[in-house]
Amino acid sequence: MGDKEEEAEGLLGEESLPNKSIRRPLFTRTAFIITIINIIVFFTSLALFVISFSQRYQLNFELRQASTYSPIFDRLDLEMRPRKIQGTLFPDKESASIARELPNAAADEIWEEWELSRFYPLTRDEIVRMGKDPSTVPKLEDSEWGLGDDAYVGAFDVYHQIHCLNALRQNAYRGYYKLTTRNHTVMGLPEIHINHCVDILLQALQCSSNVNFMTYHWVAGQEYPQPDM
Ligand SMILES: *[C@@H]1O[C@H](CO)[C@@H](O)[C@H](O)[C@H]1NC(C)=O
């Protein structure tokens, strides 16, 4: 009987093995599809990793994350470094900014230099990438400027912001700048300009401000803690 069973198993085994391999092959259609998907997912994530890795080494990577497009990011290395804000009410005269000076001709010359909106050439594609319409932007003609056939007028926003700050400063010293005293209940062109400047600076500050802190400190001779502005 034992021999017969072995024989039967042997026969079954011989018969069932080839049968199984026909019905359920080692590499089924499903397994094949899953493997293909796996390979695709692997190479996609590998590509994304390489792209993000290479972007990290793009010029001005950190600034690009916190700003809308500017062609300057591709052209200049805007090296970032921490700067300590000079906020004291009584700075040393030698290290003080011209903003701390009473109005004078020498400081005015520097203010004028800083607020001047200089032209900076932009290409047509750069203007489009900024989301603007290049068809109404004046061209810097090659015959006149020698900048090639794809140069259009641009100017840095920061110069306009400095112009606005200087306009407010001059209004604060309107006696020196011979600005006539105005009736504050009447909205004339000078008021429209001043309010435009206040709004420009307010938006610039609110859009670019950081989340740094002032801290308050006990200072000898002061009754209350003072901010380290
Ligand atoms: C300012 O303008 C208002 C409205 O025109 C007028 O009523 C007021 O008298 C003016 N004030 C001065 C100081 O001129």
Please provide a brief summary of the model.
This protein has helices at 2-23, 29-56, 61-65, 72-75, 105-115, 124-129, 142-145, 157-172, 189-208; strands at 120-122, 152-154, 216-217, 226-227. It is mostly helical and 229 residues long.
Write the layout of secondary structure elements.
Elements: H1 2-23, H2 29-56, H3 61-65, H4 72-75, H5 105-115, E1 120-122, H6 124-129, H7 142-145, E2 152-154, H8 157-172, H9 189-208, E3 216-217, E4 226-227
Helix pairs in contact: 5-8, 8-9
Describe this structure in words.
The chain has 229 residues and is mainly alpha-helical. The protein has helices spanning 2-23, 29-56, 61-65, 72-75, 105-115, 124-129, 142-145, 157-172, 189-208, and strands spanning 120-122, 152-154, 216-217, 226-227. It has a two-stranded antiparallel sheet. A two-stranded antiparallel sheet has the order 3-4. The protein is extended, with a radius of gyration of 35 Å. It starts with a helix and ends with a strand. The protein binds 2-acetamido-2-deoxy-beta-D-glucopyranose (NAG). Residues 183, 185-186 line the site of 2-acetamido-2-deoxy-beta-D-glucopyranose (NAG). 2-acetamido-2-deoxy-beta-D-glucopyranose binds at residues 183, 185-186. Belongs to the ustYa family. The chain crosses the membrane at residues 30-53.
